[in-house]
Amino acid sequence: MVDGSPKVKKSALLRVLEVSRRLSAPVELDEILQLVIEAALEVLDAERGTVFLYDENTDELFSRVATGEKEIRFPASLGIAGESAKKRQLINVEDCYADARFNQEVDKKTGFRTRCLLSIPLIGIHDELVGVLQVLNKRSGVFDPDDADLADTLAAQCAVSLQRARLIEEQLVKQKLEQDLAVARDIQLGVLPKKLPEIDGYTLACWSRPADETGGDIYDATFLQDRGVAVLLGDATGHGIGPALSVTQMRAMFRIGLRLGEGLDRIAVEMNEQLKADLPGNRFITAFLGILDAGENRLDYLSCGQGPLLHYHAGTDEVESLDSNALPLAILPNLMIEECAPMVLEPGDVVAVLSDGFFEYADASGEQFEKQRVSDVIRQSRDGSADEMLQALLRAIEAFAPGIAQDDDMTAIILKRA
């Protein structure tokens, strides 16, 4: 303070009380931080102030608001602020450059020279570390014991308000994220077929369940005039809003290609080029595209990294596993496609296209469900419809890993010839 007279002390305490009154109002975190810093500078007659908030997840201190400074982030064990946080003690440094604990890098980055400082831990309810308040360079000399007492009083008033504001902000962010996820989920669900095509001589089952609110998988099934029924299964890397939007975009491109009367190869090539241009380098989509000609009992297909494809042959009671014949979409430009014969479906034959979430579903020991168990379920339920096979598969997974939460998106297309 400027001097130790009772009048000046009373004025400073009244300022602290005024700050406490304003902090009790429901204001946002940034406003509280700015208010704390302005009050500290005025009450302690200092040149500059910073509140370093504590990030428990990374064990770091970081500045959200600082007068004349850019945001600073550093380990909570570093420097005087770190020591103040860890020991939860006020530290009064009269000559910073003579103190080995002082981190000179901050001054080098900001161009400001710190002579003296007070570092005060901000401790909230339940003894929770909220952050550290630092005030730099007392204008009239160095900080004295009266300044330290005032700083302690101010910090005690500020800590709980900051804690409350952070909790409110985190809740608002969470609510906003939940709202965004709900919108993305509605968009994704909105593009799924409201009703699956009914195909003479066939049963068709399509199903999807994301691991999160939104998933990176999608399916589609639609009639084509004079061309049969087209089906699509897409599986984007990851799950959440980004992958959900990616596969929704892919489904839209698939439908447009079909409307234009293009073949599967041309549709896949164009989808690949667009997704390669749109997606980050570490993102891609595996996809199965198929067109069933029910009259010819032929399934023309293209598998871009989506495998294994399972073809149950009723005549031999065996499950054939087919590999993909192209790279996943968005991996490389100029998609190269290996020629493959269409699947010919005899009476009782089944085609099952499943995303990784089925094969990689793990039990408590980490053992995965894998292709052989899927094949066994198909064989055991061969007399049922496509939907009955799907339900049998889901029951088998539940029995295999009882009580184990799903950790990957699960999507299935099962087509059976009667």
Topology:
Layout: H1 6-23, H2 29-44, E1 46-55, E2 60-66, E3 73-75, H3 79-87, E4 91-93, H4 104-110, E5 117-123, E6 129-138, H5 145-191, E7 202-209, E8 217-224, E9 228-236, H6 241-259, H7 264-278, E10 285-293, E11 298-304, E12 309-313, E13 318-322, E14 343-344, E15 350-354, H8 356-359, H9 370-380, H10 386-400, E16 410-417
Antiparallel strand pairs: 1-2, 1-6, 2-3, 4-5, 5-6, 7-16, 8-9, 9-10, 10-11, 11-14, 12-13, 12-15, 15-16
Overview of the structural elements:
It is a single chain. This protein is of the alpha+beta class and 418 residues long. It folds into 2 domains: 6-173, Beta-Lactamase (2-Layer Sandwich); 192-417, Phosphatase 2c, domain 1 (4-Layer Sandwich). Helix content is 39%, strand content 25%. The protein has 10 helices and 16 strands. The chain has helices at residues 6-23, 29-44, 79-87, 104-110, 145-191, 241-259, 264-278, 356-359, 370-380, 386-400; strands at residues 46-55, 60-66, 73-75, 91-93, 117-123, 129-138, 202-209, 217-224, 228-236, 285-293, 298-304, 309-313, 318-322, 343-344, 350-354, 410-417. The strands form 3 sheets. The protein has a 6-stranded antiparallel beta sheet with strand order 3-2-1-6-5-4, sandwiched between helices.
Summarize the structure.
The protein is an alpha+beta fold and about 425 residues long.
Salient structural properties:
418 residues; alpha+beta; Beta-Lactamase; Phosphatase 2c, domain 1; 2 domains; six-stranded antiparallel β-sheet; five-stranded antiparallel β-sheet; 25% strand
